[in-house]
Design a protein that fits this description.
globular, mainly alpha, single chain
Length: about 190
């Protein structure tokens, strides 16, 4: 098991073993869906944007920043850990929207169970962050940045609708700049 951020550990211990087991099942189910990596990342970005827009409208930038931070912490911890044995997965083009819906529906079921059990609102928030951070934390820092940036852009786009797909391209940000490139027209490419 990897080291999780302290607030995440505290919140997960407060919600109980049953909910934590359901979170683990949701993550395992999502990871097991045979998707191309870009489709999986698009589903994650769409889920992040939907959660940020529907539940944390006024504080979505804070939600996205917290998610970025936790996912990066998990990614770094995984990079330092010995590699897990790979599980062969049949690669096929799968619908990112179905994976996104499955992830959001599973998360909603967990949150409803927590609400029924009387869990505090901040435990539900941290649960959403924990699920998404654990999924994103499986990727390298560049990929996390691409997904979270795409989700943040979707939240700000007046044409994007909650539950809609958020495309993520692994080729984005990988091209060198031309000498005459207009820097003001470029999207952010990383963090300092």
């Amino acid at each position: 098991m990897i080291e999780l951020p302290p607030l995440l550990v505290e919140a997960l211990s407060a919600i109980g073993a049953d909910i934590e087991a359901r979170i683990g099942d949701l993550i395992s189910d999502f990871v097991a869906i045979p998707l191309r990596e870009e489709d999986r990342l698009s589903a994650l970005a769409g889920a992040v944007a939907t959660i940020a827009t529907t539940r944390y409208r006024r504080h979505r930038a804070i939600f996205i920043a917290a998610l970025r931070s936790w996912a990066l912490e998990i990614s770094i911890a995984l990079a330092l850990a010995p590699p897990a044995p790979g599980i062969p997965v049949e690669r096929r083009r799968g619908p990112a929207e179905e994976a996104q819906d499955g992830l959001l529906n599973g998360l909603d079921a967990i949150l409803r169970a927590m609400l029924d059990d009387g869990s505090a609102k901040h435990h539900r928030l941290v649960t959403e962050l924990a699920v998404m951070a654990r999924l994103l934390g499986r990727y390298d820092t560049r990929t996390i940045h691409l997904v979270v940036t795409a989700a943040g852009r979707a939240c700000e786009d007046p044409l994007w609708r909650c539950g809609g797909a958020v495309p993520v391209s692994l080729r984005e940000g990988g091209q060198p700049l031309a000498r005459d490139a207009c820097l003001a027209a470029l999207a952010p490419r990383g963090t300092a």
